[in-house]
Amino acid sequence: MLLLSIKPKYVNKMRAGEKVVELRKQKPRSEPLDWMAIYECSPTMAIVAIAQVSEVAVGNPKRLWRELSSMVGVNKVEFDTYFSGAAKAVGIRISKLMELSDPISLDDFRERWPGFHPPQGFVYLDSFQVDFLMQRVDFPDQLVCAIGSN
Predict the structure, then answer these.
(1) What's the rounded Cα separation, in Å, for the pair 62 and 91?
(2) CA distance 37 to 46
(3) Which stretches of 72-137 are DSSP H helices?
(4) CATH 3.40.30.10 is right for the domain spanning 2-146
(5) Is 92 in contact with 22 (CB distance < 8 Å)?
(6) CA 17/CA 29 separation, integer angstroms
(7) Per-residue pLDDT reduced to its tens digit, 66-91
(8) pLDDT at 115 over 50
(9) For every residue of 7-21, which 3-state class applies, written as one string?
């Protein structure tokens, strides 16, 4: 499972269903990518949700904007600034977003895994970290946003 760092304003857009594609410059290497954990950056500094991934789209930035602009939660200027000079763009589309019943603070995570640092982009969680995280999710009751047919 991936852990992605996402700014609070974009996490809020995900909660509202306004952002269902997370943009990255690098494609995750794990296939298939079924779930991702969301670390909400400062000031929250906690893992707040997990999201079910329905698709990972890769292409040049112009193509991705053309195909996904209504789902990325950013305007064209923000998109172009983020991908400035990049030959490749990655869009991770989510179909479900589930809040953790008890968000995992950075301090709490570090207590169990000393030396842990939130990623600049994303990191891969090990099986122990995934188990710890999944214990905090109430799957049927915590559905915040469902998009598509998954």
Answers:
(1) 12
(2) 11
(3) 76-82, 106-112, 127-134
(4) no
(5) yes
(6) 26
(7) 999 999 999 999 999 999 999 999 99
(8) yes
(9) CHHHHHHHHCCCCCE
